[in-house]
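Following the same procedure, backbone shapes were mapped to integers, as reproduced here:
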Amino acid sequence: MAKNTETYLAFDPVLERMVIQSEATGRMRAKLSDNHAWCFCELCGNLTEYSEVRSAPVVVKRLKNGNAKRVHLTEKMILSGIKRAQKLAERYSEALSGKYGPFEAAHMIARYCDIVEMRADRSLEGFLEYIEPKMILREQARHGEIAWATRLAKSHPDSAKPSKLYCESHNPRRGITSRRAYQRDRRFIWEYRALMEQIWSHGFKNSTLSGWDIEEHAYVRREAYRQVKALRSPTSMLDDFLSKGTMTQAEIARELGISRQAVSAAIKRRDIKNAKKAIVNVA
């Protein structure tokens, strides 16, 4: 049975052509429809390869026979974009003072900004900081059209397209190292999700997390992944305890729930590894 797919035009930086990209609906659509989780790796707190590509649009100019070339950003475009942003900021400042009525500031926020990305910062500085790169991109787009690349930056021409589920470190199609990381962390995916739920629950109970801020979602995922690493390999948390400089090996062993001998062996392995790194750096 054929898959139900959606297509869109994208720019291939290697072929320098506009190509048709297709993506299956279903699981991918469910993930991409989540306003907060769509950009995060399924196994850690890093951004997915797809979100990294989507967050960096390019401007291209179409040529004959489907070819295209990239329009590079010039100093003139940057200055022009900054001027446009400053003019809008001046009007926004006047709107905040009520010069154009009680709703003009809200209308400008709705037209030019994303309040979630701005983290509810409606100040003049927050408005200018948000729209400045947008105006620069808009000025650049006057010389072509906006598209998204089909590959990660500096990737091999034959490499797989960016993953919507995993980051570069966990995409099993990126290489041996990432495949090992995927296989290692995939075994703990349910523990990872359970830890995220616990962190959210604790944050909601203590009113330290709201659930709508993208930075909070990133924090929860990073913290859950840190705890998964400790669960997977308790000695991986060794550096955190040694950096305090006040804990004995016995105290560290009690905190990690392992024997003192295991802590001692991990410290020796750590010292040997650091010594090898120092030799390589000197060489």
